Every structure is written in structure tokens, then in C-alpha cells.
Amino acid sequence: MSISDSVRPWESPELTGWRRLPMSAVDRRDGSVLLDGTWRFQLLRSPGAPLAEEWGEAPVPGCWTMHDPHDLPHYTNVRMPFPHRPPLVPEANPTGVYEREAAIPAEWAGRRILLHVGAAESVLIAEVDRRPVGIGKDSHLASDFDITDVVRPGATHTLRLTVVKWSDASHIEDQDQWWHGGITRSVRLCSTDPLYLDDVDVRAGRDGDLRVDCRVRGPLTEGWSVSAGLEGYGELARDTAHDAANREQGRVSDFLGEARLTATVTDARPWSAESPALYGLTVRLHRADGTVADTARQRIGFRTVEIRGRDLLINGDRVLIRGVNRHDFHPLTGRVVTEEDMRADLVTMKRFGFNAVRTSHYPNDPALLRLTDELGLYVVDEADIESHDHAHEIADDPRYLPAFVDRVSRMVLRDKNHPSVVVWSLGNESDYGAHHDAAAAWVRRHDPTRPVQYEGAARTDWASARIAADIACPMYASLDEITAHARSGEQTKPLILCEYSHAMGNSNGTLADHWAEIETTPGLQGGFIWEFRDHGILQRIADGLPAGPGTTGGYADGIAAPGHRWAYGGDFGDSPHDGAFCADGLVLPDRTPKPAMYEHRELAAPVRLSYDGTTATVHNRMHVRDLAWLSAEWQIGAEHRGVRSEPVRLPDLPPGASAPLPLPAALPDDGGELWVTLRVTTARDEPWAPAGTEICAPGIRLRERTAAWPPAAPGGRVETDEEGLLVHPLLTAPPVLSLWRAPTDNDLLGGAARRWSEWGLDTLVRKIVSVTHEGDGRTTTVAEHPTAVGTVVHEQVLTALADGSVLVEETATLPGALHDVARVGSVLETAPGPDSLEWYGPGPWESYPDRSAAGYVSHHRARVDDLFTPYLRPQESGGRNAVRAFSLTRPDGTGLAVRLDAPRQVSVTRHRAADLAAAAHHDELAPRPGCVLHVDAAHRGLGTASCGPDTLPRYLVPTGTHRWAWTLGAADCGGAVAGGGAAQR
Ligand code: IPT
């Protein structure tokens, strides 16, 4: 019987590891042997099942759930995937056995040899030549085992890593994400001298004070020493007084040595997200003869984090936290992410104005923190603890106390030297118990330089003085609640939402409202959007399996290639499951930004523009940088004249300052609106953006429209059918009333969609009350639309205009019971052919009434297919807010042109709302040959009700009478969007 059979480490929460080495901040990759690649593999039914004769193969790192058909990904949010009470797990417990030979370098003779496993999910049992060498738990931190005694340098040994999927630890790794099994980070062999740096603890403040504490282990014969050099500075001084005091107090022994080095770097450039200045630090451990036994290299940054009153200060500055939550996710490899993947995630965040990331809900690969140090992102580093389903039972269950402290302390030990880490988080959604206080106490003692947060410790009392809550970090609190708290006089600490603005599907409504309050309300300091990326796994439709590692060409521009789809909960036959709730990111599974990213980018812009009627003013909104890294040009978008651009020189502006900006020289006056946009780009290469990358595009309106409505005099005849509906050669379906949209995830989970179906808005019935034709060809149709709670009366007046277009004037009166419909507007369908839309209004991005801060008013052009955002689960998509006019044309320029009486919500797609609502995935949708066109008098905001607050009352569609008017003409005879071409990017 093996150790594991008798101990059952997968059902022993008090066993957090066995013979696993203490965590350390010393990076041992240099000179190590990487064991990533193809390993022998078998998947057992349970940890006790016998091994088969035959071995298969598996990639390391890799999730077997992404390539082994016997155990596929399973998605649950809160619920555990099995009914067992903690710490128990099912007998059927997929267990992956990984094996390979490893040659121990001959030159490691006499050295200490370590086996390093980056991460394994969820229990790791390591053996060398069938001898157990250690056990590790915590699926998101490394385990290191000392294997010196069981290997021989120059020889080859068999490594076996047995990974048990379900364990007591699964109950505290119940994060909202796919369940996987596997070895998810790199495996290595490392070596050290017998005398080695056990740990190095760096403290570097913004004033340039540097302190390096070293712990040394090994044969500590008299005379060993440490030294260190800092790039651009030179050698650090030994703090002999500190070391002598240590010795006097009897704090030195023959198995643990401690030494402190210090420096005052008077000209140190502070590290910040805006200006992430890093300095290379090399720490050396010397033997008594002066030779170097061990070296630790690290890039460090000088920065100070403190809380003063209710402000979190970074280098003394109250920096607004524009954060996002990030999971380790990849659509082909599950939880395995490469350094390039991590860099791409972070670069995307930087390009879209984020300055902070929360490692929800576990420590990431150490590479992530090296990258946040380098690129400049503040990090809330979060421990791997979420006991959501059994939160209350576990938070005070003494069997789990060691695991809580273990997980938090090991994260802190590993990550403490990263300047980007500004806050420690004790985990997520695990109720609140003594274990949290125990872990917080450990952190306070070990690292008093950073605040500690845990949402659960202050859930009901944001001013709580609890040890685990330096920051009030609620999730999904409403804007009213947080502003009321900030104004209550009771606020005692910074309020930074750990999660807000749930990005599921077409979402992030009211982001601009949030930021307007945050920027003007002392005490509110930002938050972290939930979340960065949609967790859609690329799935082959034919066999239902994950496309898996190595698949190429499986997606592009956010869209799964033919024969594939983005899978979410339930798509692998997983049960119970939580459907598309894992698709709640700001970017699609392949990292294509959703339109909400542009909204965030503009709200977070380093440069802002204002106009007081005569003068334009540019504001530098940064804390550290001036404007020298940015270039700009004016884009002039006159309503009837197309777009042209003109260079502009940004003034020399220190952080926080403002200055007038000369407007473009010759501004057209064509009777229409006049907007100018300041297109701001990077002037030179930034580590996260090549020169020329667009950073923001703030716009200002210089003149309002003066032209009269309607744009042409009546004349001619309108053709209608017997129901009074327009008959027009460009249309296959005439304009009729629409009150519904394909429910967004917010509409569905927030309850609006259910109400709409109960009312019957999705199957609106039209009953004609009267059709009247006037002598001049005008047709007036009055129709009633009975719903389950009241009747909507719709009147449509069609008039032919002298320029050949048709004027459509409409009113719709909603009874009081229809207090929250999706939209009030017209829907029509065009004949096949037109495939390109040009519009005058905000753009180019998709926008909705409560998510419309990003667009700048200009002439925009896009292919119809590109207007539609492929949100993972098909839903309302592709809208453009505040459109003034548009033309929808074929490649030869012919098609239809629409002018609107006022800025209106418009959408042009290939799908009827009902098509979208009926489909669960995009492969089930057949694009229509023509276009489906919506022109809305009013359109409901998006809100974030799939998890959190719905939109604000002012973005709901009011009851009563709505009026709207528009003209429909041919694009080739006086088209709507005249002039010299649209904005192109
Ligand atoms: C919150 C979780 O912390 C996060 O992991 C995710 O599930 C998010 O919600 C929703 O997508 S918890 C929720 C119960 C508020």
C-alpha cells in the first residue's frame, strides 16, 4: 500500500503539503532544466485505480480536460460539481499520471537538486523512480521538492507526477470558472549550491530607501557573507549594525543565516503604473573564501503604498484605480497560459486605459508579475481561496485553517518583491471567519508595507475595522450606495470596488456614470471591472470535443471558424452547469476587444478635451507623465462635408495641467453640425504600444445643426399596400413598429426579457385601425398592438418628398403598464445587395444610450458584417447611438439613404431579433441576404443586471407618446451622407 492510499491526501485538508519546500521569492529559472513537453500519460478513474500497461501522451503544461475525451471541461459558478460535503470528494475522481525520464546534469554533482512543479490541479503527488518525494496542494502556486538524496547527477531518473483532480482543496478552489485537471504551469529541475539564498526580501520606497534582507541556509561556516549590486547605483552597504544586533540577540544559528543590505538611492525614479521604472538588483551569497555560492536576480521598483484617511496613495498620490479582473484563460489550452498570452492580455489592458489588475481569484504565474512590473499595472494579488458553495461551513472549520494561512502566506512569500503588487487579497467569496483573520495577521507581520483586503470581511460594514479589511472593496454595489457611503461622513477607508460593471455579453452600461461619480466624489477611488476575457472554449462541432492545444486557424476576429463554436457551460455535456455566465469578459475568447473596451479607453484617457464656446482646452490627466509621449491630429467631421484631418501640436503640459489648444484653421460651415475630434496616438514606441497606436479620441461640438427638417418639400406619390405599409423597391419588409430586442444577457438574467415575453413584445400583433390616403399621396395608418398588459397605438404617416425619398413620421403611445420595454422604433428589411454602412454620428464603435462615451461624431463607414459584435451567446448587437443620417450601399455606391429628425439609436445587421434570440451559438445563425434595420425613437440602456445593478432610470424607455421621423431615399440620388468620405482607421 502506498502512502497515498492510506493517507488519502485528497481528503485531508489539514495536509497542505508534504516535504514541499517553503515558498521563496528567489527565482531559480537560471540554469534550470525545463521539463515541459510531451510526457507519458494515463488518466485513471480514481487515485486508487491500477495503472494500465499502455501509456498515452499528454503535453506538460497542459489540462487533460482539453484533450482527453474521458474527462472534459465542466463549468459551474457557485455550485460544486458534486454533492459531497467538504472535505469529501467523489470516488470517481479523475487522476492523471504523468511520467517521463529526466537526465540530471552531471555538473550538478555536489549540488542541491530540486524538482519544481509550477502548478497542478488540485493535488500533486511527486515520485522519483517510484519513491514518493512530496505532495503539494494549491492549484495556483508552485511546489518545490528537494530530490538531492534520490537522484544521481549524470544519471537518468523516472519522474512521476500524479495529479488528483478532486480534493478537499477543490472545496476552497470553487471559483467561477471551468473545472480542469492537469499540470498547468512549467516543470523544471533546478539546482543550488549546498549554501544557498533561501529568501530575499526587498523593500524599496519612493524616497530611494532600499533594504534587502537575505535568509541563508546550508553549511553556515563562519565567514559567509552577502553582497548586492543595483543597476545604475552600485554596491549596497552591509547593515553591520543590524547584523551584529542579530548576532548579539542570539538570532544566528548554524542552519539559518540572516543579513541585511541597504542603500539610499537619492535619484531613484519611482515606480508607478504610468512610469514603471525598474532597477536590476543582484544579490550574491559568498562563501568564507569570497567565492559566490548563490545569486538572486530581480528587477525592483521604488514605490510606496499607504492609506491616509480614505485614500489609497501610491507614491503619495491618490491614483484612481481603473482595474479589471483577470483569470488565467485560453480558448485552446484552458488554464494554461504562456508568457506571450499573459503579455498580450496586459498589453491589451494598457492600450485600453487600465492601470490595475486583480488576479482573480488566485496567484498567477510569476511571469505575470514580472510583466506587470515591466508594463506598469497595479496588482491586487489574490490568494487561491474561494469556498463559495460551502463558504460558511469552511470559514471556521478548523481543518481548513492551515490551508487558508498556507495559501495566503505562500503567495506573499513569493510575490513580495514585486513593485506592481500594491494590495494583498485574502481570496474571494468564502464568507468571513477566523481563518481570514489568521491569514491577515500573518501578512501584517510579514509585510507591513501593503494593505490587505478581503471583500467578505467588510461586506455589510464598509467602515469595519476588521484586520482583514484595509480597503472597502465591495462587489457590484450600486452607484447610489457607494456615493451615499462616501458622503455619509461614516467612511473610514478607501472604497475600491473589487468587482463592478459585469461584462457579460452586450453590457457595461452606465460605465460613464460610474466614472463621473468616482472622479468627483472624494472617497471613491475606482474599481475592477468583472472581467477581462470571455471563457469560451473552442469546440469542434462534429465531435463536441475541445479543439484543444495546437489547433490553428480555429478563430479570427472573435469568431469561431466554420465547424467550430465557442463552448460555454453545458456544451460538453457538463451538469450541473451555469451556461454562458463564464462569458463575461471585456474581450472575446480570442482577445478581440468588445466595444465596451473603447468606452473604457475613452473614460480612462490620459488626455481630455473641453470647449467653452470659444476656446478648446486640453487637460493632462496623468499623475507622472507629461504629454511628450503623445501626438495628435484634429479630425474635422462636418455633417455635409466628409472628414479631413489636420496636424496639431500638443502643448508641453505637466501632469494635472491644462492649456488652450488652437482649433483647426479653416472650419467648414455647411448648415450642419460641426464636430472636431482630437485623435491622440503614441508618438513613439511604448513597451505596450508601437508608435501610432490610438490612445483616445475625445471630440467637441463646435456648432449645432441649423438646417430645417424635413430636408425636402413634399411631392410625388408613396406606394402602399392594402394594410397601409410602404411598398418600396429597396425593401423586402416595410417599416413596422418594434418594441423588443433580442435579450442581452443582462436582459435575461436581470428579468427584463421574461417580462417582455409575458407582455408579448416579442410577438407583437398588429391590428389596423385605419388607413387614410390624402390627395397628395400621403398615407396615414393607425394600428394597435395589443399586449398582455395594455395596447400600444402606433401611427405612421408616409409622405413622398420632391427629392424622391419618402418621409416617415411616426408616433407610438405606450400605456403605463409597459413601463420598461426594450425599444420604441421602426424595423424594416432591405433587399439583398447593400453591404456597407456609412453614418454620421458617434462611432465607429457599437454604442447604446448608457454606453456611448467612446464614439466621436463624424462620418463613419463599416461593412455591415463588421457592425455586429459576435457576443458569445447571440443577442442584441451592433447598435449605433445618436445617429443623424446613414446610407446603406452596394459596392457600386447604390442603395438606400436615411436621414433622421434627431440623433437616434440605429442598427443594421443580418439578423432579425427573433433569429438572435432563438440561437444559443453563432453557428446556428444564418445571416439573411438583406439587412435588418432598426431606427429607434428610444432604446433601453444595457445596464449590468446579469450580475449587479441594472441601468439607471434615465436610460429606461418611458411610457407615453414617442415621436420620430425619418426619410428613406436612394443613396445614389441625394444620399444621406454626402461629402468626401468617412473616417477610416
Ligand atoms: C462574483 C465572483 O467573485 C466572480 O468570481 C464572478 O462569479 C462574478 O461574481 C460574476 O461573474 S460573486 C457573485 C455572487 C456576486
From TrEMBL:
<dbReference type="InterPro" id="IPR013783">
    <property type="entry name" value="Ig-like_fold"/>
</dbReference>
<dbReference type="InterPro" id="IPR017853">
    <property type="entry name" value="GH"/>
</dbReference>
<dbReference type="GO" id="GO:0005990">
    <property type="term" value="P:lactose catabolic process"/>
</dbReference>
<keyword id="KW-0378">Hydrolase</keyword>
<dbReference type="Pfam" id="PF16353">
    <property type="entry name" value="LacZ_4"/>
</dbReference>
<dbReference type="Pfam" id="PF02836">
    <property type="entry name" value="Glyco_hydro_2_C"/>
</dbReference>
<dbReference type="InterPro" id="IPR023230">
    <property type="entry name" value="Glyco_hydro_2_CS"/>
</dbReference>
<dbReference type="GO" id="GO:0030246">
    <property type="term" value="F:carbohydrate binding"/>
</dbReference>
<dbReference type="GO" id="GO:0009341">
    <property type="term" value="C:beta-galactosidase complex"/>
</dbReference>
<dbReference type="GO" id="GO:0004565">
    <property type="term" value="F:beta-galactosidase activity"/>
</dbReference>
<dbReference type="InterPro" id="IPR050347">
    <property type="entry name" value="Bact_Beta-galactosidase"/>
</dbReference>
<protein>
    <recommendedName>
        <fullName>Beta-galactosidase</fullName>
        <ecNumber>3.2.1.23</ecNumber>
    </recommendedName>
</protein>
<keyword id="KW-0326">Glycosidase</keyword>
<dbReference type="InterPro" id="IPR011013">
    <property type="entry name" value="Gal_mutarotase_sf_dom"/>
</dbReference>
<dbReference type="Pfam" id="PF00703">
    <property type="entry name" value="Glyco_hydro_2"/>
</dbReference>
<dbReference type="InterPro" id="IPR006103">
    <property type="entry name" value="Glyco_hydro_2_cat"/>
</dbReference>
<dbReference type="InterPro" id="IPR008979">
    <property type="entry name" value="Galactose-bd-like_sf"/>
</dbReference>
<feature type="domain" description="Beta galactosidase small chain/">
    <location>
        <begin position="717"/>
        <end position="969"/>
    </location>
</feature>
<dbReference type="Pfam" id="PF02929">
    <property type="entry name" value="Bgal_small_N"/>
</dbReference>
<dbReference type="InterPro" id="IPR006101">
    <property type="entry name" value="Glyco_hydro_2"/>
</dbReference>
<dbReference type="InterPro" id="IPR006102">
    <property type="entry name" value="Ig-like_GH2"/>
</dbReference>
<dbReference type="InterPro" id="IPR004199">
    <property type="entry name" value="B-gal_small/dom_5"/>
</dbReference>
<dbReference type="InterPro" id="IPR014718">
    <property type="entry name" value="GH-type_carb-bd"/>
</dbReference>
<dbReference type="Pfam" id="PF02837">
    <property type="entry name" value="Glyco_hydro_2_N"/>
</dbReference>
<dbReference type="InterPro" id="IPR023232">
    <property type="entry name" value="Glyco_hydro_2_AS"/>
</dbReference>
<dbReference type="InterPro" id="IPR032312">
    <property type="entry name" value="LacZ_4"/>
</dbReference>
<comment type="similarity">
    <text>Belongs to the glycosyl hydrolase 2 family.</text>
</comment>
<dbReference type="InterPro" id="IPR006104">
    <property type="entry name" value="Glyco_hydro_2_N"/>
</dbReference>
<dbReference type="InterPro" id="IPR036156">
    <property type="entry name" value="Beta-gal/glucu_dom_sf"/>
</dbReference>
